[in-house]
UniProtKB/TrEMBL annotation:
Protein's name in the database: Armadillo repeat-containing protein 3
The entry's keywords: Repeat
Species assigned in the record: Amazona collaria (yellow-billed parrot)
Residue spans of the ARM repeats: 290-318, 414-438
Top-level taxon in the UniProt lineage: Eukaryota
Taxonomic path: Eukaryota, Metazoa, Chordata, Craniata, Vertebrata
SUPFAM superfamilies xref list: ARM repeat
Length: 516
């Protein structure tokens, strides 16, 4: 009976040459459970199984030797044979009252459920009996059945079988029944797995179940339910057809509602779901009309994870969407976005820079952001060691550096030095954006001269000599630097172009000699 009970968890245990033990050598075999060798572990478990099966006294002996704790660790071992043999020993030992008590304390059931093997499960046709267990009068049995369904419903075939056996209706009934409130979190977790399949989601929608599900989530005040629902929507929204279905059922209202909860975990999960749904243009418009003010408020959260999740959503919402960019500005989002450039998380900083550049595609917003001192704020992200932050900060400098006052601000804030250092980056995107930023900033003589003094000219010449490192912006940046530093250009090139206008301060320092 015990063998059958656990057979769906692991592959069939492998037989080894017998390792015979008696009570006086049991301690030695228990010590073998700490061996790093898989074959030794499997043999030890096999021997302990035979020893424990001889009677309750032997089980008590193994308990006293600490075998249960060692075996508990082995049910998570990477080798399937070791796992299987360890479970077999625990199974035979579980008939002892004291062993059973310890297994409950160790919460071994959850660990066993988490290691269910789909191939074992397919053969057993386990869905119908599990659904039958949901009718049990004992809540603990119902709970374990749902936890098992949650694990196995991660498998596509299992989800199909669940739908064929009317399991979806059963799960929705649990959610609709207040008496089963203690099972709602687990039931929702199973349904969440099912939402990943287009076919299953269509079935739930056609039966009216999806509308009921979203209504249930909107009305719930339990954070775990809200969070699990948002995570389920996120997983479902990675599929195009699923996004369309969710949009038809106005999932946006549900997610916006979740942003207003008091639980930070729920806010993060809801933000991630909104980010995923933004790939649907209708959803993106809906969130722009209703959700941007709430997201802007989250930028001022004390929780760094919430802040990072919210600004990540704003990246997707404002990308190629002038109306959403305007909505973010109207919601007074510029100042919180600038503050987020000082955030603790690199992801938040990089995304804040991206949102600000998205907004800057509209000239009035660019001027607004620039007047609030963005260039002095960007000096610090330019010094970051994170390549994503470096890249986004350099790109922001390229976008806002088209204004003379902005360039002066960056120069005064000491931002040109870190920018020149980024030209040395081995990261192609960082190097490209740094070249772009240098090209933009070299638009006046003062800034161009400072960039040359900091070594930008030498680095750009070196980059342009390399086929693998040069890019369109590196060549343009070098040209712009020389055009705004004519003395250097004449020394370097030996000539000036017809559009190069000499002003006071030009001098001929002699042509650079490359040979000695």
């Amino acid at each position: 009976m015990l063998k059958r009970k656990f057979s769906c968890l692991f592959p069939k245990p492998q037989d080894f040459d017998p390792l015979l033990i008696e009570s006086k050598t049991a301690a030695t075999v228990v010590l073998m459970l700490s061996s790093p060798e898989e074959e030794v572990l499997a043999k030890a478990c096999d021997a302990l199984y035979k020893f424990a099966s001889k009677g309750d006294e032997n089980k008590a002996t193994l308990l006293g030797l600490g075998a249960v704790e060692q075996l508990y660790k082995l049910i998570s071992h990477e080798d399937p044979t070791v796992r299987g043999n360890a479970v077999m020993v625990l199974g035979i030992m579980a008939s002892n009252y004291d062993v059973k008590k310890l297994l409950r304390e160790l919460d071994v059931t959850d660990s066993l459920i988490s290691h269910l093997v789909p191939e074992g499960i397919h053969e057993l046709n386990i869905i119908p009996p599990l659904l039958e267990l949901l009718k049990s009068e004992y809540p603990v049995i119902q709970l374990l059945a749902l936890k098992t369904l949650e694990v196995i419903s991660k498998d596509g075939e299992m989800r199909i079988m669940l739908g064929e056996n009317k399991g979806l209706d059963c799960l929705l009934t649990i959610l609709e029944t207040d008496e089963f409130s203690d099972l709602h979190v687990e039931a929702l977790a199973v349904l969440g797995n099912c939402l990943e399949d287009v076919h299953t989601l269509q079935l739930i929608q056609q039966s009216g179940g999806l509308k009921k599900l979203l209504s249930f989530v909107r009305e719930s005040t339990i954070p775990d339910i809200q969070k699990n629902a948002a995570k389920a929507i996120t997983k479902a929204a990675y599929d195009l057809e699923n996004r369309n279905i969710l949009n038809e059922e106005e999932v946006e209202k549900c997610l916006i509602n979740l942003l207003e909860t008091d639980n930070d975990g729920v806010k993060v999960a809801a933000s991630q779901a909104i980010s995923a749904m933004c790939a649907n243009l209708a959803s993106k418009r809906a969130f722009g009309l209703q959700g941007i003010p709430q997201l802007v408020q989250l930028l001022s959260s004390d929780n760094e994870e919430v802040k990072e999740a919210a600004v990540a959503v704003l990246v997707n919402l404002t990308a190629a969407s002038p109306s959403n960019a305007s909505a973010a500005a109207e919601a007074e989002g510029i100042e919180p976005l600038l503050n987020t450039l000082h955030a603790q998380r690199d992801g938040a900083i990089a995304n804040a820079a991206t949102v600000l550049t998205n907004l800057a595609m509209q000239e009035p917003l660019r001027v607004n952001i620039q007047n609030r001192g963005i260039m002095s704020v960007l000096a610090e992200p330019l010094r970051s060691t994170n390549s994503q932050v470096q890249s986004k900060a350099a790109f922001a400098v390229a976008v806002f550096g088209c204004d003379a006052d902005a360039r002066t601000e960056l120069r005064s804030a000491g931002g040109l030095g870190p920018l020149v250092k980024l030209l040395h980056s081995k990261n192609e995107e960082v190097r490209r954006n740094a070249c772009w930023a240098v090209m933009t900033c070299a638009s006046d003589e003062l800034t161009a001269g400072e960039l040359c003094r900091l070594g930008a000219l030498d680095v750009l010449e070196e980059i342009n000599l390399s086929k693998s490192r040069k890019n369109n912006f590196s060549e343009a940046a070098l040209e712009k630097l020389l055009d705004n530093n004519l003395s250097q250009k004449y020394s370097q090139m030996g000539y000036l172009s017809s559009n190069n206008i000499i002003t006071d301060g030009f001098y001929d320092c002699g042509q650079v000699s490359y040979f000695k």
